[in-house]
């Protein structure tokens, strides 16, 4: 039983929370999808407000049609890695399209966004001569990339260029390679990094900057190229990572760069070389979604209109919000137990959001995480705001 003892404490907490409502917040089944913003769950139609479907393209006609045609023409899977038989013409075409859209010379497509960070970081940085510096709130895939690399990893305070500067200043001349990793918009709280300042600090110390725009690609910037476009430093980022599973409504990930040496990852990155490549359908759907993103800025405008409406409503209701306006709107709750009950209350009122509790959240915070979509209708948002209004009344009554 020694292997399983480590899980006992977490299992007991999880079991007690689940027993209080009879519902598993981390095992909700979407029994039938009714479009990008609705699903049948436990026999009831609910509004999906925790999906990361920022541009609402999962049911886009062009993307669905492209995926169907790709299955018919190229089959259901590649049965091999990108390094072996798993590179099709579609993979190469999408790499060129992404590089062209971002203004970079090189791009490599991975099987997931998680593997893009895992593969890039672990291949770029090697002990004992290289060091990685990461924002303390970085995603698990960035932490795992650091661990897989085996290199020394140093954390700096979240969204704090001064903290990064101090830590870089302490590194001695024996350090040959320095990689600084951070994100555009952070997925839990929806807070946005000072990308320009962080890139400048990294370059001032001769370090390379790796920016993960997974949740901000398609969302920020005049053309949807991310926070670095908004901040005017797109061309200064050394390595740009992203995913297809948010704004591009598919599965996969990528790393883009102006450094020609990026191509070395194709024969040195284990997560690229030793896992099956994205299916033809996933690649075709992502390609079609990218074409829509480039051609139609109205989706991004609708997304921000919806985000502003919900954020403003929650402010007026007096919720403790984790960050300024963004498409991710996280509400802090007083405890794990209160967050769990609040999540269940929203489900009972027809709204699905993400429950996030320690240890998977920054600063041991318990939150209800909502993500807005361009596909949300006025009726969808009326239901969401109505459910949160009722929740606010309940929380206030219990506190009285």
Can you offer a commentary on this structure?
This protein is an alpha/beta fold and 400 residues long. The protein has helices spanning 8-21, 61-74, 89-102, 113-124, 140-149, 161-169, 195-204, 227-230, 270-273, 280-295, 298-316, 336-348, 378-399, and strands at 32-33, 38-41, 44-48, 106-110, 130-135, 152-156, 177-183, 208-212, 239-243, 253-257, 328-333, 351-352, 354-356, 366-371. The strands form three sheets. It has a seven-stranded mixed beta sheet with strand order 4-10-9-8-7-5-6, with helices on both faces. Strands 1-2-3-12 form a four-stranded mixed beta sheet. Strands 11-14-13 form a three-stranded antiparallel beta sheet. The protein starts with 7 loop residues before the first helix and ends with a helix. The longest helix is centred in the last third of the chain and has 22 residues, at 378-399. The model has no long low-confidence stretch (mean pLDDT 96). Helix 2 packs antiparallel against helix 10 and helix 11 packs parallel to helix 13. It folds into two domains: 5-49 and 297-399, Alpha-Beta Complex (Aspartate Aminotransferase, domain 1); 60-295, Type I PLP-dependent aspartate aminotransferase-like (Major domain) (Aspartate Aminotransferase, domain 2, 3-Layer(aba) Sandwich).
């Amino acid at each position: 039983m020694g292997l399983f003892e480590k899980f006992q404490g977490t299992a007991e907490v999880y079991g007690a929370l689940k027993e209080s409502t009879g519902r598993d917040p981390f095992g909700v089944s979407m029994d039938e999808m009714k479009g990008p913003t609705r699903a049948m769950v436990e026999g009831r139609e609910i509004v999906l407000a925790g999906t990361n479907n920022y541009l609402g393209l999962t049911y886009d006609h062009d993307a669905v049609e492209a995926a169907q045609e790709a299955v018919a023409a190229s089959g259901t899977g590649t049965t091999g890695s990108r390094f072996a038989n798993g590179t099709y013409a579609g993979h190469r075409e999408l790499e060129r399209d992404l590089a062209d859209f971002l203004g970079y010379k090189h791009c490599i497509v991975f099987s997931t966004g998680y593997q893009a960070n895992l593969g890039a970081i672990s291949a770029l940085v090697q002990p004992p001569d290289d060091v990685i510096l990461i924002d303390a709130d970085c995603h698990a895939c960035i932490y795992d990339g650091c661990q897989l690399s085996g290199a020394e990893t140093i954390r700096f305070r979240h969204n704090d260029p001064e903290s990064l500067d101090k830590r870089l200043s302490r590194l001695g001349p024996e350090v040959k390679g320095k990689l600084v990793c951070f994100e555009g918009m952070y997925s839990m709280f929806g807070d946005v990094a000072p990308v320009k300042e962080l890139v400048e600090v990294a370059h001032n110390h001769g370090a390379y900057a790796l920016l993960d725009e997974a949740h901000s690609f398609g969302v920020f910037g005049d053309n949807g190229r991310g926070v670095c476009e908004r901040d005017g430093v797109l061309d200064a980022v050394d390595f740009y990572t992203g995913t297809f599973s948010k704004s591009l409504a598919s599965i996969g990930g990528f790393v883009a760069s102006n450094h020609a040496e990026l191509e070395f990852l194709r024969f040195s990155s284990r997560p690229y070389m030793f896992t099956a490549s994205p299916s033809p359908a996933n690649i075709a759907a992502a390609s079609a979604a990218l074409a829509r993103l480039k051609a139609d800025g109205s989706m991004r405008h609708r997304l921000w209109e919806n985000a502003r409406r919900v954020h403003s409503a929650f402010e007026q209701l007096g919720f403790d919000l984790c960050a300024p306006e963004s498409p991710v709107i996280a509400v802090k709750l007083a405890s794990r137990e209160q967050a769990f009950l609040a999540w269940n209350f929203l489900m009972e009122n027809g709204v699905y959001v993400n429950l996030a509790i320690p240890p998977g959240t920054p600063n041991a915070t318990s939150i209800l995480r909502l993500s807005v979509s361009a596909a949300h209708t006025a009726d969808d948002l009326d239901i969401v705001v109505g459910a949160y209004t009722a929740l606010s009344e309940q929380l206030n009554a219990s506190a009285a």
